[in-house]
Amino acid sequence: MSVAQIEAGRKGEEAVSLSVPLITSLEGQSILGIKASKGFIINTSISTGILKQNSNIVDKITKLDYASLSWLRANNSIALRSTAGFWRGQIEESRSKIEKEIGETKLSPVAENEIKNAYDSLCQKVGEGNIHVLAYDPNENNDQLIFADQSRAQGEGEIIEIIKERFVSQFSPEAIEGRNEKRLKLAQESLSKNKNQTVSRVLAESKNLSHIESGLKIVVWAADKG
Length: 226
What we know:
Largest sheet: 5 strands, antiparallel
Low-confidence stretches: 1-18, 141-148
Number of strands: 7
Order of helices and strands: HEEEEHHHHEEHHHE
């Protein structure tokens, strides 16, 4: 999700984007080569919905973005390295504030209803009521980590709590560090094309500062009871 999309959420755009449905089926799809047709995907428009419900989160993300860029620059500059601990602390503080805001935020009735209907349909497909499901965010995982980083849920209420938890997890220092590595790689590639630049300057002039890069996506699929 771009900064412009975040700002759209602040200004009160529809919680569910018309171009991206909130829910899509896993029918005919697979996860790492394993058939997982009994499930559904909560798409990236859920992030827009969360931001619309509580625009205070946007301000917290903006502050976190500044701290994140400063942390990255400090880690790659001898002159600034002594400030790296301070900026990491600022990231922790911003994440804590985002978590607090998320805890006080409810999804829109439309979004909650769509998730409930998708869960009820999955129960019918499995042939049982109130089934257990596994959920994970593919944006934050590589293939090796997906199965180790799934959350177990039962009922649409627990699925909604997972959505909130995974939204917050995007802003942990560890998650930001991973994305910063990609940002640094791009800066170094730019530097190789212009020898008169420095890594610090390239990072400072970066136009893509938001850490919600593609928005939150949750894959939910039927789990064994064990």
